[in-house]
Design a protein that fits this description.
Keywords: Cell inner membrane, Cell membrane, Membrane, Transmembrane, Transmembrane helix, Transport. By secondary structure, the chain is mainly alpha-helical. The chain contains six helices and no strands. It is elongated, with a radius of gyration of 19 Å.
Length: 161
């Protein structure tokens, strides 16, 4: 069971790394193309500004999932900074469960929002709504990483800041 969860974690990290890297590459290329088109040809690439906004979301969510996997995400558990190491280890799983619960609630809200957006979007705007799927998918990935942390426990032995 643990080996299957570890394999799932590795597959997720590989997928998220690839998506974040591809999104960053596309963002740089699209932005460069837009700059060249505007400065040299007095025109722009159609929908480039919208796409760059979505690519930033993709980079953010896939990067956040990678940070959650490595336990390097932004933490608000200030009390843990003052606790001794054994107490921090005891709080790891409950905090992972809390993070998973919060991300699950955000996933459900984002999915409801996306469904409403899809239902009321004009036909010519549906491509943007499809790109917005990254928001519920991102929160779902974050929830999954917190659940994996809950089930597998801490991976690091060195002290974290």
């Amino acid at each position: 069971m643990t080996e299957a969860l570890q394999r799932l974690r590795r597959l997720l990290v590989g997928f998220e790394t690839g998506m974040a890297g591809l999104s960053l590459l596309l963002l740089v290329l699209l932005t460069l193309g837009q700059i060249i088109a505007r400065n040299l040809f007095d025109t722009g690439l159609p929908a480039a500004d919208s796409l760059t906004r979505y690519l930033v979301l993709y980079i953010t969510f896939f990067g956040a999932a990678l940070a959650a996997d490595g336990d390097r995400h932004i933490k608000i558990d200030v009390v843990c900074a003052w606790l001794a190491s054994p107490w921090r280890s005891r709080l790891f799983r409950p905090l992972q469960a809390l993070g998973a619960l919060i991300c699950l609630l955000l996933f459900q809200a984002a999915l409801r929002f996306w469904r409403d957006e899809w239902q009321y979007a004009a036909d010519h705007e549906r491509w943007q709504v499809l790109l917005n799927l990254v928001i519920p998918v991102g929160f779902g990935l974050l929830c999954l990483h917190f659940l994996l942390g809950l089930l597998l426990g801490e991976r690091r032995t060195e002290p974290r800041l």
